[in-house]
Fold this sequence. Notes:
This protein is of the alpha/beta class. Helix content is 29%, strand content 12%. Helix 1 (18-27) packs parallel to helix 9 (206-217). The protein is globular, with a radius of gyration of 17 Å. The model has no long low-confidence stretch (mean pLDDT 91).
Amino acid sequence: PATNASSATYYAVPVPPTPPNSLFMVAGQNFGILDDNEPALDHVACTAHIADQLEAAGLTWRTYQESMGEPCQMTTVGEYRTKHNPFIYFDDINGWDGTQFTRPKRCLDHVVDYTQFDVDLAAGNVPRYVFITPDDWHDTHDGAILDGDAWLAQEIPKILASPAFTRGGALFLTYDEGSLQTDHIPMVVASPYVKKGYVSDVYYNHASFLKTVQRILGLDELPCNPSADSIPVMADLFAVSLDSPAPPP
């Protein structure tokens, strides 16, 4: 749409399952995970991810997971898939004590059901960083593309009308992975600061997305990633410099 910016050359990482891709989106690497296993099998001890960076910088964050039910749900339930929730792969969030996930207060406070998002929007209490995952029906894995479109048509207007967005927010809309034939996926960015109607032809991927978010929030470069300097920031989609983060709403 003419009010947004987008990338025509945005790609998932060349490993098809969701976990490696979603981990790239929050940590800049996949920690050697190449499969579709849930956190019970593939949880990681590394603490270099964006949640730790946000807290160290005094910035608020939450991930809203549709159909998860209780906070910090570590078991797939209905259309909620734990493997689509990258934050619970990290032991400093899930509370792994060597034998079980203890689900500490940090996880209960920050990893919540999507119904909480409406509550936070209404209260003007939206965190500085938000990661939203639709359930397996609305992410078009189980449902049709029309189901995903209908969900977005219902949910995105709420975000675009909120002070969290109108006062300098940015909304990134993408898939976590591509098909078996291609890693090419859509990336649309809505913000008061994007170049309206601009379509980038620069090669970007999930590591670029993370680095762009870090730049906007004034955080350090990609954690746990020795090749951070070679990863491009999606700066050309914006009409302002990303080196001067916008003040909080």
